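Fold this sequence, please.
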Amino acid sequence: MYAQFFRFAIAGTIGFLVDAGVLYLALKCGTGPYVGRVISFLCAAFVTWQINRRTTFRGSKQHAWMTEWLRYLAAMSLGGICNYGAYAVALKTLPPGAFAPLLAVAAGSIVGMFVNFAFAKWWVFARTM
């Protein structure tokens, strides 16, 4: 399980980079920090699902890819709610500046990581006996 968590954390780090990059791109396009974060979260969830299904939980595919994606997205939603809540609190409490959204994304990512790992391991990619 430690190896899985390590791979999950690596996927999460890549997801964080996607999340932050898409957020800044969305901000440049004028979406605002909250709508931009929804877009960036969905992009990051898709990227981490692809990594996790191929590396972290390889060999545990029990569902068609669309079913697995929808289960993954549903499972990540609880972690995503925690993630978004921490992001919003951090965004409100951090001093304004160019790095505030990045630090807020980091805070949200850390909060959601443990919830997301549990749901991914024991629901989305659980092996049936």
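The longest helix spans residues 65-93. The chain has four helices and no strands.
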